[in-house]
Amino acid sequence: MTTQAQATPHEPPGKPTAASRTTLSHIMTGNDTNLLGTVHGGVIMKLVDDAAGAVAGRHSGGPAVTASMDEMVFLEPVRVGDLVHVKAQVNWTGRSSMEVGVRVLAERWNESTPATQVASAYLVFTAVDENGRPRPVPPVVPESERDKRRWQEAQIRRTHRLARRRAIKELRDRRAAEGMTED
Ligand SMILES: CC(C)(COP(=O)(O)OP(=O)(O)OC[C@H]1O[C@@H](n2cnc3c(N)ncnc32)[C@H](O)[C@@H]1OP(=O)(O)O)[C@@H](O)C(=O)NCCC(=O)NCCS
């Protein structure tokens, strides 16, 4: 069984979750709105990808590309004048990939009311070398109970991603073998 942050002889040494945890903060302006006048979901997704990319780069010590983004959930609308905080951390590491968990909080820029969570997302980043090929990443070492729970949940998502990808590939291969054609 794979255990948390288990190292093999060729793996780089582990790094604690806290070492690369990052917050990106941004005030929303009129340039960020959709037709309803609230902030466009794509603006938030870009900030999420930016923060997650910074965390993946810090953890892996070099370039990392977005391989997938899943479970992006928008809980509340974000408004012009909101100060948005995008909090990201590496939840889990594989050989060359990392799951990054992101929470998005918003508060009025000029009020001292508590920030509320408006969105969350999980992304997979793959560390790449100068030729764009996957390279090994240090195992993340979850230290707090919260980080250990997030590692375990990320492992479940990883299993589901792989199973889904395999099932879809098998279906397509089967349809192709049966001579099914599409327009
Ligand atoms: C991500 C990428 C480097 C993977 O390359 P690849 O040749 O398929 O490499 P592999 O199949 O060996 O996968 C490498 C790792 O990425 C993971 N991975 C690859 N595709 C994935 C996907 N769609 N979802 C989740 N993880 C994925 C693999 O599980 C593997 O993880 P592991 O090493 O921890 O076990 C390649 O697909 C790529 O360059 N994609 C474009 C990335 C990009 O440009 N992003 C920005 C978009 S604008």
Automatic annotation (TrEMBL):
Q: Does Hydrolase count among this protein's keywords?
A: yes
Q: Report the residue ranges that make up the HotDog ACOT-type domain in this protein.
A: 18-131
Q: Where is the composition biased (Basic and acidic residues)?
A: 143-155
Gene Ontology cellular-component annotations: cytosol
- BP terms from Gene Ontology: acyl-CoA metabolic process
Q: Where is this region: Disordered?
A: 1-20, 133-155
| Molecular function terms, GO-annotated | long-chain fatty acyl-CoA hydrolase activity
Sorted UniProt keywords: Hydrolase
Signal peptide start-end: none
Enumerate the InterPro entries for this protein.
Answer: Cytosol_ACT, HOTDOG_ACOT, HotDog_dom_sf, Thioestr_dom
Q: Which domain of life is it from?
A: Bacteria
Tell me the Gene3D superfamilies matching this sequence. Hotdog Thioesterase
Family named by the database record: Belongs to the acyl coenzyme A hydrolase family.
Q: Can you say what this protein is called?
A: Acyl-CoA hydrolase
